[in-house]
Each structure stands twice: as structure tokens, then as C-alpha cells.
Amino acid sequence: VSDPVNLHDFCARARDTLGESACAYLDGGASDEITLRENEAAFQRRRLRPRVLRDVTDIDTTTRLLGAAVAMPIGVAPTAYNALFHPDAEPAVARAAAHRDVMYVASTNSSCSMETIAKAEGPRWFQLYAQEDDAVTGALIRRAEAAGYGALVVTVDTAAPARRERDTRLSDSDTRAAQGNAAPGQWLEAAAPFLTWELIGRVRDSTSLPLVLKGIMTGEDAALAVEHGAAAVWVSNHGGRQLDRAPATLEVLEEVVAAVGGGAEVYVDGGVRRGADAIIAVALGARAVFVGRPVLYALACGGEQGVRDALRILDEELRNAMALLGVRSVGDISRECVV
Amino acid sequence: VSDPVNLHDFCARARDTLGESACAYLDGGASDEITLRENEAAFQRRRLRPRVLRDVTDIDTTTRLLGAAVAMPIGVAPTAYNALFHPDAEPAVARAAAHRDVMYVASTNSSCSMETIAKAEGPRWFQLYAQEDDAVTGALIRRAEAAGYGALVVTVDTAAPARRERDTRLSDSDTRAAQGNAAPGQWLEAAAPFLTWELIGRVRDSTSLPLVLKGIMTGEDAALAVEHGAAAVWVSNHGGRQLDRAPATLEVLEEVVAAVGGGAEVYVDGGVRRGADAIIAVALGARAVFVGRPVLYALACGGEQGVRDALRILDEELRNAMALLGVRSVGDISRECVV
Amino acid sequence: VSDPVNLHDFCARARDTLGESACAYLDGGASDEITLRENEAAFQRRRLRPRVLRDVTDIDTTTRLLGAAVAMPIGVAPTAYNALFHPDAEPAVARAAAHRDVMYVASTNSSCSMETIAKAEGPRWFQLYAQEDDAVTGALIRRAEAAGYGALVVTVDTAAPARRERDTRLSDSDTRAAQGNAAPGQWLEAAAPFLTWELIGRVRDSTSLPLVLKGIMTGEDAALAVEHGAAAVWVSNHGGRQLDRAPATLEVLEEVVAAVGGGAEVYVDGGVRRGADAIIAVALGARAVFVGRPVLYALACGGEQGVRDALRILDEELRNAMALLGVRSVGDISRECVV
Amino acid sequence: VSDPVNLHDFCARARDTLGESACAYLDGGASDEITLRENEAAFQRRRLRPRVLRDVTDIDTTTRLLGAAVAMPIGVAPTAYNALFHPDAEPAVARAAAHRDVMYVASTNSSCSMETIAKAEGPRWFQLYAQEDDAVTGALIRRAEAAGYGALVVTVDTAAPARRERDTRLSDSDTRAAQGNAAPGQWLEAAAPFLTWELIGRVRDSTSLPLVLKGIMTGEDAALAVEHGAAAVWVSNHGGRQLDRAPATLEVLEEVVAAVGGGAEVYVDGGVRRGADAIIAVALGARAVFVGRPVLYALACGGEQGVRDALRILDEELRNAMALLGVRSVGDISRECVV
Fold first, then answer.
1. Which residue does chain D place closest to C33, by CA atoms?
2. Quick check: C189 pLDDT over 90?
3. Quick count: other Cβ atoms within 10 Å of Cβ C315?
4. Residue C52: which of B34, B165, B221 has the nearest Cβ?
5. Which of A156, A165, A245 sits opposite B52 (nearest CB)?
6. What are B293-327's pLDDT values in tens digits?
7. If you average pLDDT over every residue of chain A, what do you get?
8. Can you tell me the distance from the alpha carbon of D287 to that of D134, in angstroms, rounded to the nearest whole number?
């Protein structure tokens, strides 16, 4: 078996390594998994318009996310319970991200504490499941501030528990026990029917960290996010893991970008598998894309080195596609690049 | 084998239980089964637009159908010969529906009498194959009134016998014999080339029960239905079992809703397999959806308990999707929810 | 094995009976067979709009084709070398057509003489491959007139020999030998690069029979046909057997109907497999459809009785679909019937 | 096994002959091979509008490419390392092309020298990978002029090395070694991030040969090409071998033709497999199409005779489709021929 040459390879190899329930948890989406499949398909339907005869000797993939310098407009999305996939868990992923200078977003429900993760010392944000009790949420925010996390990414698309049928079929008690063991750092209930714009306002007022709202899928909510002081809007359907039949994230990106109107940065996750996907999203107005599942497949395959390899491949693909597209820097990627 | 987690599971399990001809009768549609397949596909093509940060702690799925309070906008469609699938037949289905407070529509060609079915004491309507002889029809209507059925659902899409080729191939004499045995309560010929708006008018004038016309597929006929005093228009292509090449019901729903213009309630059946399907239909103007085949698969799997489980799953899916969509009540579901 | 219930059944059964090269000749189309497949697919994409509550006790499928009364708007298309498929050949097909009072079109390259075929005494037209030498063509026309054929159907889409690769692969010398033996009645070269509107004019002037031009696929040529005195325009791509990449016939029907503007009757063949297909074509402006391959499959299966069965099934399907569509006669089928 | 009847046949047969890595190199495209597949699919989606009753006894397929008379608007695209596929390599292909009087484009990275190839004495152009050092490029141009090449085809879509994963998986060191051995005539690095319009200007000024820019995929670049003195614009995505997600070439042809506005000839390659494909491209404004992979499959199958056969089949298909389409000459092929 040769080395992985693309992100799909990590997925195929991880399947040989992981147990059935870890695979089900990682691969699966909600209900019929229509949204899960559509996320990838939406990227594959788009076409890039290559421009030629521009000097692309030097390709600059760097960008800034809420002011933080990163090596490329591709970051690591927050994912829970990484110890399910490799004993080195989140710290390995965070170190790989730091090594490549890409944004890492630590999940509330990580398998180890956010302080341990922060030791990687790379660009980092903290994903927060805001709770009804401000004190609980506040304590977590204080820890995030102290650990050097540069923004709070509040997940807003978990108003109800997910219906992931693959997990249910595999007597998910096993998985949940494993997850319980795997999250000693901190753990908060994700399902939050009580979450409101008012509560988001309280979070915003409780910290000087910029606020990112993750899970916005409509122009209406994007406009409300800006109105409520969000520094960034993160287009996400939770990787097809919450509401099945939600549109592919790429399909709503332009609607969100238009509604935001420059009032906040826009990110997108879901279905990103290639460097070219990042270009497509940036061309449609995103400031960055985030990658979730592929990073965990890479973690399962080779720990920190696996994730380093995955991020290197994304970087190589991105540079290659930018050169063939005739764009020298992220700022050169415009709407005209995409059909 | 774990418990069924969705309605497809009942179908898969029922296939192990049922004989070949019962399966053919239940699964099959007319001719090439294009309409049969399109019914489901039309729902799966639609996308839901999730709104976030609305308090969805309390989800209210209740609604009223022609004034009758029901637990959710999903009812049990009329289906014939239930004894083909389980010895407890229609009464088991009716009891399960009553247990969950959902509308049950008893078929003329039930395997036992409408009076027996009515003992379930839930919200119930009676489906009628109107006959040329008013006396025959009238006698049935009197019985339905006496047995507490709250509306007459007159089927209008059976002007000719169905051409279901799966049945024909399996020497359908067997099936028909079984059906004959299975329908001791009452039985009327479904094929009714003589049925006209004038005859519908006679039915309407013969009872104080509200009239539902089931099998409307065009705006023109929907407008005529209102004009002729129908209290509700039921969009149906008989589950793809009558005219193959008819459109998917969901594809014509908006045309029908526009033509009705608020003058009657609108229902739809055909292809409903998920709670989310009900939301899609309601968003496009339906007051409720009805489910046929999946209920019979559930009946075949586990009698009354099977149907209870199926209805519980639909309820759970509906609540989950409403919460993730940011709608608290059926009345909150609007056109903006659906792409 | 039960009796055939639809036209596809004849095809499946004929494959068991026929030799490989007869199958290749009958099944195949030109080049990649894109047009062959599209012909059927185009019909299957269309949807019918059923109207309800109209008295359809009496369904009248009769129509007139160039004045000739026929039992339904579905006729038998001309096909060559029927002896390849059954020893009773064209006379058996013609007798079956006469038995059901449907239009039969005899091919120039029949396996027996047009006079023998005419003994069936049903409604009949003669398909003509017009030749460069007017004397040859004229002699054939005189025979057709004498044998009671009611129209000349001149094929105009064979300017070059077909490139049917299935035949070529099977050492088509065998097939051609068989075809040579099979066509003792008359035989004329189909490929006619020399054919022009001027030559068509000479044919028209040489007979009092009405002229049908078969193989028109554009509005421009349809208008020219009317201008040159054609009584009918027959939309055909030769069953996908001549120019691959030609559109499905149904896809160009409306363009042709519009160009003809009532100045001639319009027929269509290619992909008709169901009674409903005839309704779709008539709704879009055709006066009739013609069926080729399925008739030969039926001939292969059961000789005259096989073709009678196929025509009976088409009649039953047509009546059934008309009833379920709410149309009592062919004249009632209008543009509103089809989406 | 019968003789090949179409270009796909050569591909199927070559797979039996070639080793795994030669197959991977020839068959493969970049990344997910989306663009590779789309190139063929785009041609197959188009439909031709056949016109009838025009005298097509004499079909003239000849045309002129930058003034050079050729037998048909289908040429041989430049391809590298032909010795990987057959020991007779490029000279065999060039002789076959000369035999049929079609344009042959010799690759810079041929397995033997351009002077050897030129001995075939047919219509020929030279494909050039322009280098940073004008002296290197200039020396090659002088040789091309001396060897009678009629135009310089400068490839402009290789700003970065290709990411062809099939090759990478097969330890491409083997392939590259073979390629090194296979290219004794001349060899230049294809990847050229430094290539600019300015450098193209220097090439143009250094020779009296007309300049063709190969690898243009946008109207913007096509307009720039004309502005910079290109005699022809060649629409190409390098056979799906450079930027995956680039559109199918046929999909951008009309945009390029419009931008060129008659100021240069336009060619297209990628996905051409049938004579009808050439007609489609010409109808949309191309002056010619070029064929790459199929020629190499044919070379692998039968050396010079294999390529002769492939070109003969294309010629036969082209003549056949022109006749059935009712066009006598290449100049008769117009926009109305294609849907």
C-alpha cells in the first residue's frame, strides 16, 4: 500500500483500523443521510475557470481569520471524542495543525482538557455548547480565555438531539460509554432547545473574545447574527448530522454571504475534501473552509503524522489548483473563478 | 436485529414475513411504477431551511382536521384488506391510531366491519367507494354516521380498474380469493367509470358529514371540488396504483393549494416516509399528510404494537425536525421553511 | 411463465427464441445507441394530469388517419424482413392489425410481396424507398395502388447506410444473406443520398395516393413537407437506427406540430411501449403513434396471435389510461393532459 | 474478435496489451477525474438536428487549418512518450496521419526527434513547451521551422505539475524512467509557472510561424490571445489531466468562440470519440477538433495500421453523420445543426 495521495485514502484506510461503532459514529449522518451526501456532491458539481499565462511562481496561500494569521484558508473543524479514533486524540490533531499553522477549533466535548490541547500553541479557537446556566458557560469561557483561544465558536444547530440511525442500530450505549470515558477535559450537553438570540447576547457580553456562530444556514439568520454582534458566521449543517434534508452548505453560501454584506467573516464546512473545494468556497465569498471527518480519518490512520500528512496534501492541492487557476494569492480568488 | 428505527425498517422486515403475493399487492404500483417511485423521490428532492436560536423547548405537533383535534398532521390513509397482512387487521391499526390520537381513515373494503373498527374510539373518517345505486351508498353512509365517523372520504381516482402487473403475474386469483375472505365487513366495487360531479353532489346532499374528495391531482379539479361543496381536497394518485405517469403528489400540491385558495383543507398522501415529509407538505400548504403502505408494513411486523411503533417514530421524527427547523407549532411551518 | 402483461414481456421472451444476430438486428441502434435509449426515456419523463369525476363508461379510441377509420391512434410501423423473426412474417402481422382494425404500414423490404400482405384486408399504407429511377419507383406505386394501399409513406431519413455496430460485430454477412432470402416480394436499396424535395415532388405527381413523409425531425423540414404537398409528416429517427445523437422523437414533436400548423397530419414513432405513450403524443399534437420493435417481438413470440395480443394490450392500456385521465374520446385528449 | 468498429474498441483492446502503468498514464486524469469524465459526457449530451431531402451524394469533409489543406476537421493532438505504447512510436502515428491527410501535432516530449517525425511529410504542427530561457525555446523553434512544421502550438495550461493519482499510486518512478528513455528527440519541462503573456509575445516575435495557444478555457483569455497575436485558440483542459473541476471543453467552446469574434481560428480537444463529435464542435464554432487518447490506444493495438484504422473510422463516421444531417461540406455545418 502506497502513502495516501488524497483525503479519501485516509477514509478508506481508517475503516480497516476502526471498530464498527467508531466508523458508524464518524461516517454517519442523520436519517436518510441525504444532506450528508449532498454536502460533497455540491462541491463536485461546481466548475473552476482556469486563467492562463499569469506568473504563478510564487503562490501565497496565507490569510487572516478574525485577525489571526494562518497558512491557508482551510482549518480544522471542531469534533468531539477524538480518543475514539486514536489514543493521542485532540492534542495530536492540535499539534499537527500548529505545525502547519492552520486554525484549529477545539470542541467543548473533547477527550481531554482545552488546556492540554492549547499546549500545541497554534492558532486556536474554542467551540462552545452554551448552557442554560450562565455560570457553567462562563466558567468555560474564562478557561478558554486563559488558555489563549482567540475566538468562541458557538454551535447553534443542535436544538434537538441528532437522529443518527447507524449509531442507534449499533446499540449506541457502547459508543456513549466510550464517549463518556473519552471526554475527561470537559463535557456539556449539546442538545439545547433553550438556545436563543438573547442567550447568545449574554455570551457575547460576557467576554471580549470575538463570537463566531456555527450552524447558520439561511440569509435571515446570517443577518440576525451580524445584528447580534457576531464577528463571523459559520455556514454548517453539522456535517449532515443534525437535520437531514437541510441543503448542502455550499448551496446556501451565496445567500449567507449576501445577507452578511461584509458585516462579518463567513466560513463554511461540510463536504470539503480537496484543495479545490476551498477555492470554490472562497470564490463564492467564504473567508475559509473547515474540515472535520477527513482529519479524524487521518488521525485514526497515523496520529499526529497522519493529520500532518492530510494537511500537507490539502496545502499541496490548494497551491496546485491556485497555480492552474492563475491566482497567486487568496485575495485573487474571485467570483469569476467559479461557474 | 435491533428495533426498527425508521419506517423503511418495517418494510424490510415485513418482506420476510409476508408471502409473495401479499408483498406484490402491497409494494406494487401500476404499469411501470414510475409514479410509485416518483412519490417518494419528490419528497427527497426538497430541502428544508433550518432557522436557529429560537426557543423550541416545547414543541406542539397538534392540529385540527375538519375540526377534529389530532396529535399530529400525519394520519393513517385508508387501505383495503388488512387481514392479508396480519390477523388483527384494521382494528389493530385503528387502536394504534387511537392510542396516539391520530386520524384513522377506514376503507370501504376493510377486512372487518366499520362498526368493529370504530370500537377503537379514536378520531376517524370513513373512506367511501360511491356506487351508482344511491341506496347502496346511502346505507353505508348511514352506518358510518352511526358509528361515529367524522367525515366521508370519497375516492375519485378509480374510474377504471388498476393495472398492477405484479399482481397479474402472480395469478391474482389467489390474491383476490384472499381479499374476498378478508372483507366480511362490507365490500364495494372500487372501479367506478360512472362517477361524476353530479353523483358527488348527491352524496353531499345525503349526509351532514363533511365531504373529502380523495384523488384530486389538478388545480382545475380542486377548484371544482370546492365549488361542489367539498370540505377538503385530498391530493393522491392512489399511491401510484392507478394511473402510472401521473405526477408525484408533492409536485402538484402547490397547484392544488393555489386553486383551493383557502376554500377547503388540503391533504396529501403518497411517498410520506419521514416526519420531515410532513413538514415539507405542510410548508407547501397541506393541512396534513396520510401514510398508507408503511402502516401496513408495521402491521405485518407487529400487529397493533408495530403500528404504534411506526406512529411513535413518525412523531419523534416530526418533533425532532420541527425543533431543528426552529418551528414550535404546526402553525409556524410556512412556505419559507422549504426550498 | 404467465401470459405477457405488457409489451416489455414480448421483448424478454423473444430474446429466448431468436438467434443472436436476429436479436442484434432488432434490438440495436446506430453507434452509441444514445438516440435509441432517449426515444423511450423521453416518453417516460412526461407526466399525465388526471381529471376526475367525468363519466367514462364509454371510451371511444377510434380515430381517422388520412380519412381511414381505425380502432385507435396506434398503428404498426413499417419494418423490414419479418421472416427473420417468424415464418409467418408480414402477413401474420397484417392479419393481426386487420383483426384489430389498426393501421398497418407495409415495408418496401418486406419478406413477401405487398399483394400477399394486402390479403389481410385491413387499413393499410405502403412504405416506399423512392429510387433514382422513376420507373422503378413508379412500378411499385402502381402495385401499391392496385393492392389497395391508402397512402404512400416515403422514408426520408436514409440518406446514408446505417452504422449499427451490433450487426457489424456479428459478421453481418450472415444477417444480410438471411435478409436477402427473406425479401422475395420486392426489395429496394434504402440508402438514398440522391433523395431531394424535387424527387419527392415527382413521386407526389405520379399518384393520387396521399403522401406521408417519414423521418422528419425539424420544424424547418416539416414546413417544407407541407409546402411540397405532404398529407402527413411522420416524426421519426428510424428508431434510433440511423443518426445517433438525433433527439428523441417526442422531444421534437411540438416543434414539428407548430411548424405544420394544421396543414398536415403528424405522426410519431420511436419509444412507444405503452398505451399512455399514445396519449402523451396525441396531447402534444400527434394524430397517431406507430409501434415497430414491440410488434416484431410479439411476432417472434407467437406469430399472428402474438401480435394480436400485443395490440390488445395496447388497446387495454389506452382505454385504461383514457378512463383514469378522464377523457372519453381521442378528440378529448388536449395539451392540458400532459405536463 | 472482429475488427474494431469504433474508437472505444481500440481502448478496450489496448488494455489487454499495455502494462498497468502505461494504462494508468494514458487513461488517467487529475484528482477525482471529474473533468476527464465530463469531457466525453458533454459531447454525449448534445443532440443533432437532421435535415432531410438534400442531395448528399458527394460529401466533402476537407477544410483548411491556418491555410493548410486537410482531409477533415479532425486532427491528431500532441501526446508525449508514444514509445510507451508501441515501439514504432510517433513516426507511426505521423505516417498514419499523413496517409489520411490529417493534421498531426508533434509533442515537444516525443519519444523521437521532430526531424524523424517530419519524415512522414504530412500536414504538421509542432507543440512547444516554452521555457524561461529564450535560447532553449528558440533553438527548438528553429528546428521546427527547418523540419517543415507549419505552426507552433504553445501549451499554456501547465503552470503546475499535474496531480494524476493513478500514476502516483503506481510508484511513478517506473513510468518516469520509461518516459526518460522514451524521449531522446528532445525533452523540456512541461510545468511552467513562469509563463506569461509577455513570454508568449517573445515567442511570437521570434518566428514567422503562426502561433496557436493550447489550453484556453475562458472567453477572457481567448480575447487576450487574439490581442497578443495568436492565429488560433485551442480550447483544452489537457484531457482532464491538469486542473480537475475545469469545465468540459465543449461547455466553454461557445464562450471562447464569441470572445474570439472571428479574430482567430478555434480548435477543441477533450472527449472527442465519434465523427459526430466533430460536427457538434464545428456547429458551435470550432474549426477543428483534435483527438489524443484514442490515437494512442490505436497505436498500442496495431502501430501505424491501428492509427490508420482509427482515422478511417472517424472519417467514415463523419461522412455518415454529415449525410444523415443533410450537410454536404464542412462549411454547411451551422449552429442550427445542434440543439
1. D44
2. no
3. 18
4. B221
5. A156
6. 999 999 999 999 999 999 999 999 999 999 999 99
7. 95
8. 31
Provide the shortest C-alpha distance from residue D160 to chain A (in Å).
6
Please give the average per-residue pLDDT across C74-90, as a whole number: 96
pLDDT digits (tens, 9 = 90+) for D77-116: 999 999 999 999 999 999 999 999 999 999 999 999 999 9
Give tens-digit pLDDT for A163-213: 999 988 887 555 555 565 555 567 788 899 999 999 999 999 999 999 999
Q: HSE, CB side, 13 Å, CA atoms: give it for residue B108.
A: 20
Three-state DSSP at A153 gives strand
**Does A160 sit within 8 Å of B320, measured CB to CB?**
yes
C-alpha distance from C334 to closest chain B C-alpha (Å): 14
Break chain A down into helix, strand, coil percent, rounded to 5.
45, 15, 40
CA distance B204 to B210: 8
SS3 D334: coil
Q: Which residues of A are identified as catalytic?
A: 238
Is pLDDT at B175 greater than 80 in this prediction? no
Grid cell digits, residue B166: 405484479
Q: Decide if C47 and B247 are in contact by the 8 Å CB cutoff.
A: yes
**How far from chain centre, in Å, is Cα A57?**
30
Min Cα distance A31 → chain B (Å) is 8
User: What pLDDT band is residue D187 in, cutting at 50, 70 and 90?
Assistant: confident
Query: What percent of chain C has pLDDT above 70?
Result: 95
Q: In this structure, what DSSP letter does residue B289 have?
A: E
Phi, psi of B99 (to 5 degrees): -55, -35
Instruction: Indicate which of A154, A165, A169, A243 best probes the interface with B, i.e. most B CBs within 10 Å of its own CB.
Output: A243
Only one residue has cell 421472416, namely C83
Cell of C223: 414546413
Return the residue of D nearest to C35 by Cα: D47
The H or E element spanning position C105 is: strand C104-106
Nearest to D53 among C195, C237, C245 (CB): C195
Task: Tell which of D31, D166, D245 to mutate to test the A interface (max A CBs under 10 Å).
Answer: D245
Strand residues in C141-273 grouped as ranges (E): 152-155, 211-216, 232-235, 265-269
Chains C and A touch, contact meaning at least 3 pairs of CB atoms under 8 angstroms apart: no
User: Could you report the per-residue pLDDT of A71-93, keeping only the tens digit for each?
Assistant: 999 999 999 999 999 999 999 99
Count of residues in chain B: 339
Beta bridge partners of D201: none
The cell numbers describing C57, all together, are 363508461
Tell me which chain D residue has its CA closest to the CA of residue C216: D52
Is B320 close to A161, i.e. CB distance below 8 A?
yes
The cell numbers describing A262, all together, are: 461584509
Please, is A244 exposed, middle or buried when counting C-beta atoms within 10 Å of its C-beta (0-12, 13-18, 19+)? buried
Amino acid letter, residue D68: A
Candidate from B5, B50, B321 with C-beta closest to A169: B5
d(CA D76, CA D71) in angstroms, rounded, equals: 12
Cβ contact C10:C307 at 8 Å? no
Q: Is the per-residue pLDDT at D271 higher than 70? A: yes
pLDDT digits (tens, 9 = 90+) for B180-204: 555 556 778 889 999 999 999 999 9
The answer to whether A120 and A142 are in contact (CB under 8 A) is no
Chain B residue numbers with beta carbons less than 8 Å from the beta carbon of A160 are 56, 319-320, 323-324
ipTM at complex level: 0.96
Residue C145 confidence (pLDDT): 98
Distances in whole angstroms, Cα of residue D68 to Cα of each of D65, D73, D141: 5, 11, 19
**What percentage of chain A has pLDDT greater than the value 70?**
95
pLDDT at residue A175, as a whole number = 59
CA distances from residue D241 to A31, A337, C179, D43, D177 in whole angstroms, order as listed: 38, 19, 48, 18, 20
